[in-house]
Amino acid sequence: MSFRPLLSRRAAIPVTASLLAIGSILIPKKTLYAEAAPSKTHLPRKPIYDDPPPPTHQLAYKPSNPDTSGPFKRTSTNTSTKPSVSSSSSSSSSKSDPTSSPQPSLPTPTDRLAAQIRLARLHLQSQTSRAEESLNKTMTSLFRLESSFTRTIADLAPPLQSGEHLMPGSLYVLVSAMAGSIVTRNRNLFLRTTVPVAVGVGVAWTLLPYTMRNVSGFVWRVEERVPFVAENHLRVRRAVEEGWREVGANGKKVGEWSEGVVREGRDLVEGWVRKGK
């Protein structure tokens, strides 16, 4: 009597649904996924590395061990071995023939990428070597310029045995040049330009003879690089030397003439004095 409500139609539906839900939970027949279920047939993916090239020669056909129990089967085996022998002979001939070459395979993407990387590395290495060579040449030229400058300064300095001192002597030369410019400040442009230079050079040759000799040698070495300037320098030097020589000769003549005049005047005065006595 107590189970009579369960047997009714209204109570049978929820009981059946609850039993099915409990059974599906306790005994699952299929896995439930939150997303799409994984398929058994996966799509083929391209491998990272390419497959090795196929072999260039084909293997010879080797039949299985035949059964030679009957006469008909023996003849069949004999006939079946003939192609294998011919195929093996053809394979051996293909191996022994040096003229036969394998078919060239097309370059793979990996090979093309490796070739491009190789070209890029070679280009970078060549540019780096060129930059290094140019830098080495520049540094070498700078070192040579520095060494030549220091050598030139050392050559211009007077020797220690001469006893010359550049500091007071150069000050005296500057003061003499300023004195020449002060003397000729009211004169024309030519005198204001040449007189201070001439006075300074003359004082320098007087006070610093070794230094001026070294400077004149350095100037002459520089002028030798330009033949036109060197020739004009020689001409001016010869003209100056000839003029100085003429001045010296004329000075001697003037001195001799003045001595003769003085001697004649003295003799005349002495004669007057004798006559007066």
Concise account of the structure shown:
With 277 residues, the protein is mainly α.
Describe, in plain words, how this protein is organized in 3D.
By secondary structure, this protein is mainly alpha-helical. 70% of the residues lie in helices and 0% in strands. It contains seven helices and no strands. Helix 4 runs antiparallel to helix 5 and helix 5 crosses helix 6. The termini are far apart.
Global Rg: 60 Å
Tell me, rounded to a whole number, the average pLDDT.
76
The total count of helices amounts to 7
Distance between the termini: 207 Å
Question: How do the helices and strands line up, and which of them pair or pack?
Answer:
Elements: H1 9-26, H2 71-96, H3 109-156, H4 166-183, H5 189-207, H6 209-223, H7 227-276
Which key phrases capture this entry?
277 residues, mainly alpha
